[in-house]
UniProtKB/TrEMBL annotation:
<feature type="region of interest" description="Disordered">
    <location>
        <begin position="1"/>
        <end position="20"/>
    </location>
</feature>
<protein>
    <submittedName>
        <fullName>Uncharacterized protein</fullName>
    </submittedName>
</protein>
<feature type="compositionally biased region" description="Basic and acidic residues">
    <location>
        <begin position="1"/>
        <end position="16"/>
    </location>
</feature>
């Protein structure tokens, strides 16, 4: 004997009439067959619940859109803050570098290359250049 699926069994039991099998719902969807057995009040409750579900889903989707928008704004704000901090560091390093380079070019004609009196100034310049390169490469 072939076992029928629960939904098939329920439909056949429900649609079997004392005079034999009722062919009226043949070709109808399961939802239509389901709704034919309900009273108008039960149908109203069913559709009211469907509307409530859709309303809740729309609220959920709106909430999700709002959360996504807030997250994107926060990420953009954090990105802008990081970029501003980077630009401040870079500008500070660039200004320091420009000042040291100006000092180097100012004293270069007076520099005694034999004794290298300005080793300290060039060491500062090299350290600053390394700092600037470290800041620039820190993306």
């Amino acid at each position: 004997m072939r076992s029928t699926h629960n939904s098939e069994r329920r439909i056949t039991e429900r649609e079997t009439t004392p005079g034999g099998f009722n062919i009226a719902p043949c070709g109808a969807s399961v939802n239509s067959v389901f709704m034919q057995t309900k009273t108008p009040a039960e149908r109203g409750i069913y559709w009211q619940n469907c509307r409530k579900y859709l309303r809740n889903q729309n609220d959920y989707n709106e909430f999700r859109k709002q959360k996504t928008e807030l997250r994107r704004k926060r990420q953009r704000r954090e990105w802008d803050e990081e970029m501003d901090a980077f630009k401040r560091d870079y500008d500070a390093g660039s200004n320091r570098r420009r000042k040291i380079i100006a000092d180097v070019y100012k004293v270069r004609p007076q520099m005694d290359r034999a004794t290298m009196e300005f080793d300290e100034l060039f060491a500062q310049y090299e350290a600053l250049w390394e700092d600037v390169m470290r800041i620039v490469s820190r993306k």
